[in-house]
Amino acid sequence: MEKELNPSMFIGVGGGEIISFGAGQPDLPPPKEIYDVLHNAHNNFRYGLIQGNENLRAALSKQYPGSDKDDFIITNGASEALDLVLRVIGKGGGKVLLHKPYYYSYPPLVRAAGLEPVYTETINGKIDLADFKEKIKDCKAFLINSPSNPTGRIQDVETLKEIERITKEREIILISDEVYKDMIYERENYLLSGPQVVTINSFSKTFAMCGFRVGYLYSNDKSIVKNVIDLKTHTSMNTNTLAQEMAYVATTVPKEYLEKGLKIWKERRDLICKGLKDMGLDFWKPEGAFYVLPKVDNPKKAVLELFEKHKVITYLGDWFGAPGRIRLSYALDKEKIEEGLKRIKEYLGK
Amino acid sequence: MEKELNPSMFIGVGGGEIISFGAGQPDLPPPKEIYDVLHNAHNNFRYGLIQGNENLRAALSKQYPGSDKDDFIITNGASEALDLVLRVIGKGGGKVLLHKPYYYSYPPLVRAAGLEPVYTETINGKIDLADFKEKIKDCKAFLINSPSNPTGRIQDVETLKEIERITKEREIILISDEVYKDMIYERENYLLSGPQVVTINSFSKTFAMCGFRVGYLYSNDKSIVKNVIDLKTHTSMNTNTLAQEMAYVATTVPKEYLEKGLKIWKERRDLICKGLKDMGLDFWKPEGAFYVLPKVDNPKKAVLELFEKHKVITYLGDWFGAPGRIRLSYALDKEKIEEGLKRIKEYLGK
Asked: Is residue A36, in this structure, part of any structural domain at all?
């Protein structure tokens, strides 16, 4: 039974009576403008540039000071961007530092690239700089994710600046997975930058188009960009060209779309935090993204019973290097969050 | 200059005065029905199943006797299917046998998966069973591509049956890249099958939707299927859900669509063969797909000068393990083929 417990059993599952606090995907609608691309499509379906559509890369470069459109590669979601860059830097092996808890795909991706994952523990979800400095010493790269999936925590700007400084000085590759950068409740995003930085991002979360799989990689390191393009030429070729056109339209959407979304996410965050607190559960307050990671007794039993008896999907903390906890994604409307909380309360017998 | 000569410099390039015998993509229109999916799209853009949409897998399983929908995984083109299966079987290393000339992505994909490519030479593009039997002995897998990119040659049914028998007996994985299986001029396709077979296919060529990147993998080996899904969960998640809906519609298109296409491909094959023959070039007659691989003097100079001076894209035989040759894709209308042939004649000074 334990053997069968893994995230892929829940991905794409839902509907009906099920309340899913599982997969991390927005339920809010995507910008309506991106449907126009579909409805007016007369696309010829031919191969596109491996690196990605030029207009999309040009639009992205406006969002990153000092960047050029040729510093970007459009990928099948942030997942592929991460996989490709790890495979490129993986030649000859080495260690990649991850902060715990981590997104569940990180260790398998690091290992699949021939690299070894090593870990720095966090304190209440915040990177412990003393431990970081010790662990980073013999690493080839550091993979940071702020806001974090699964904790929803962001790293302090001072911490980010120090990490930026150390990795630059030691020429350690700093991979920054910023797929939740537009979903921070507490402050503006601090964009990690420098010659050592590889930024990973996606349209999935910001524009609610997860199933369309458009992400990207940005780096000023021309050798990394070239090697990723060369690899992608063989492993998947261009990213779906129509999805790229939709992503381009998403870059032109007024800022209000994001602001409106953020307000809703914050309300939901407050709602779920109150509910969990009322049940007496211990958790770190999410500052971004849409995840919360409470402690529960016997988490494996909790995930299975919540699914089988209460039709509530939650993810096991163990998958994220967070034993003793379960992850809840609150990308659901208020009514569903309330119903889900009610069922969790029933499970807990409170 | 030589350093810069690689396929990615030409992919997605074209238009204007350029005649491209480069990338292998049909110019014929896709089935008109698949546009309806776009024009009526009210897709919610959410994550799909990692393994792929159920209706698409069910439709595919009807095309493969003895298969079940759960034996299929929908991927970002055949490229990703191949990359994933090689990565899965790559654990612990080993050798993969390729027949020469080969599709240019094969050796890099094999190496990127931690495996070593080894080669069996062909005679006039046909597998030499004596050499095959010798080379296969210490291999983990054989990757076959019939009809072949870049030769357009098909393997004899007797040869295919013998390869099927030997690999089954020795429990060697037989990866069959059949993306051109619906484009054979000489006979019906012979579908390699058995517990050792992993079939790779795509909607790109058959239905002219290359840029949409929908391919698939089919295997009766449950462990391979499971491991590929597990890997894809981390490396790219689901394949674009809307592209999968379009692929599903493509499976429902009347057979006439393919028959009509095949007639056109055959006419073009005859046209280009006549043109090349009239110039006195030596080549193997293509029996499927839409490639021809003539011998030329100084192929590097030919590819560069044809592009720079005559605006004709051709691919270097070296990329395919075919020194002394260049590859021409004849996925072009007759007028363009004729114009392209004229320019090649000019280049040759004939």
From this structure: no
Same domain as B179, residue B58? yes
Task: Return the residue of A nearest to B202 by Cα.
Answer: A236
Residues of B in contact with A211 (CB under 8 A): 43-48, 238, 240-242
Distance CA(B252)–CA(B34), nearest Å, equals 10
Tokens representing B317 are 């035989």
| Shortest Cα distance, chain B CAs vs residue A239, angstroms | 7
State whether A339 and A215 are in the same domain: no
Indicate which CATH number applies to the domain containing A163: 3.40.640.10
Q: What is the pLDDT of residues A86-107, one digit of tens each?
A: 999 998 999 999 999 999 999 9
Task: Look at the block and give the residue holding tokens 């590819």.
Answer: B303
| Rounded Cα gap, residues A96 and A115, in angstroms | 7
Lowest-confidence region among A40-49, A212-221, A275-284, A289-298? A40-49
d(CA A7, CA A159): 31
Residue B68 lies in a domain: yes
Give pLDDT tens digits for A259-273: 998 999 999 999 999
d(CA B1, CA A339): 65
What is the ipTM for the molecules in this complex? Answer: 0.93
Q: Which of these three, A226, A251, A276, is where a domain ends?
A: A251
**A 75-94 residues inside an 8 A Cβ radius of B:** 76-77, 79-80, 83, 87
Specify if A35 maps to a domain. no
- Identify the helix (H) or strand (E) that includes residue A33: helix A33-39
Instruction: Tell me which residue range forms the domain holding B285.
Output: 2-29+256-348
Report pLDDT digits (tens) over B227-286. 999 999 999 999 999 999 999 999 999 888 889 989 999 999 999 999 999 999 999 999
Residue B283, domain CATH: 3.90.1150.10
Residues B106 and B17 in one domain: no
Same domain, B208 and B179: yes
Residues A228 and A266 placed together within one structural domain of the fold: no
Q: How distant is the Cα of B160 from the closest Cα of chain A, in angstroms?
A: 26
B204 neighbors B228 (Cβ within 8 angstroms)? no
Can you give the pTM of this predicted structure?
0.94
Chain A segment 202-231 residues within 8 A of B by beta carbon are 208-213, 229-231
If pLDDT is split at 50, 70 and 90, which confidence band does A4 have? Answer: low
Q: Report if residue A34 sits inside a domain.
A: no
Question: Are A229 and A203 contained in the same domain?
Answer: yes
Q: Is A242 on the interface with B (CB under 8 A)?
A: yes
Name the band, by pLDDT with cuts 50, 70 and 90, for residue B300: very high
Q: Which residues of B touch A77 (CB under 8 A)?
A: 236-237
Does residue A23 belong to the interface with chain B, where contact is any CB pair within 8 Å? yes
Domain end marker among B211, B236, B251: B251
DSSP string, A181-205: TT-BSSS------STTEEEEEESTT
Among B36, B215, B213, B16, residue whose Cα is nearest residue A241: B213
Mutate to test the interface with B, among A3, A5, A47, A50 (most CBs of B within 10 A): A47
